[in-house]
């Protein structure tokens, strides 16, 4: 079993706390993505796991062994860096084998076999005698990954390895990384600031903000039932619309009101009873639709044709919101449109703590939905 566990992991740099009490469990063979905005502490967390930084507090376990004070070379991990970190005077082959003979007990023949195997997996067999200057960005990235593969580590640690590639190549390399993990099943922790990358690659995704973990869950769970307002606004492209509203119980349901706009939230009456009439309403752009005599009125200020859809931005009751409309919708800047929301895709968050209070989706099973409806304390997963 080669899992990774951190317990109350803390890293301070003078008076700055970069990592603040992170409890993380990466399962054996899992591809877990750590995502968050710049400066949230995700790369520092990765460096703590690699042994490149020492924790101020807390512990790190790899394969059920405490490695908190173990030197990096003895942790049996391989790290892929954002900058590729290839030696410019060495060929791809030499870069892939550099340090392997001293860091492992592999013989020369076994190292050569491992290079050949990694090159075949990554489709760089014809590039092994070239220096980095003669390789494209994607080819350099493959060599950097190949260097990690040759070591045959227990754990892969990847720090934003695709961020230097152009958009098309990033998409291609994402698919190749997913295929590579499916083949090797090596425990992998992957750091990125790109939430689309996180959603498409991870078996689970851990969202980090201001040094703390916000939620760890499968990608669809993050999207459908975010534990916090931050996760709701960060995950999704664009993120969830949120607006502060008054909340009033009407039978089993509740009505959220801001300006002259109202939305009914099914089965949210208990939430209205306990939040003292205030909550943050959340609805994703794609869960709003144009509808004659809809309960919401939007004044359009920006339109962004995306080919398969038309993203519009505007104000609804004084609040900025985004709506994804069908492509070629006959609307433009300055128009006023009536909107309706999917009643099964509405969310409520605490205006002070930001924690989720309610998700109306009927797609969540009872064990997932009930804690959010019953007491407002969402289960951390």
Can you put this structure into words, describing what you see?
- With 381 residues, this protein is of the alpha+beta class.
- The chain has two domains: 4-224, Rossmann fold, CATH 3.40.50; 231-374, OB fold (Dihydrolipoamide Acetyltransferase, E2P), CATH 2.40.50.
- Helix content is 26%, strand content 34%.
- The chain is built from eleven helices and 21 strands.
- The protein has a six-stranded mixed beta sheet with strand order 6-7-8-3-9-10, with helices on both faces. Strands 13-12-11-14-20-21 form a six-stranded antiparallel beta sheet. Strands 15-19-16-17-18 form a five-stranded antiparallel beta sheet, with no helix packed on it.
- Helix 4 (108-122) crosses helix 5.
- It is elongated, with a radius of gyration of 24 Å.
Low confidence ranges: 363-381
Query: Considering the protein shown, what is the CATH homologous superfamily of the largest domain?
Result: P-loop containing nucleotide triphosphate hydrolases
CATH class of the largest domain: Alpha Beta
Principal-axes geometry comes out as elongated
Q: How large is the share of residues in beta strands?
A: 25-35%
Give average pLDDT, whole number: 89
Q: How many discrete structural domains?
A: 2
Question: And the CATH topology of the largest domain?
Answer: Rossmann fold
Structural class, judged by helices and strands?
alpha+beta
Number of strands: 21
How many separate helices? 11
Helix amount, in percent?
Answer: 25-40%
**Strand arrangement in the largest pleated sheet:** 6-7-8-3-9-10
Summarize the main sheet. 6 strands, mixed
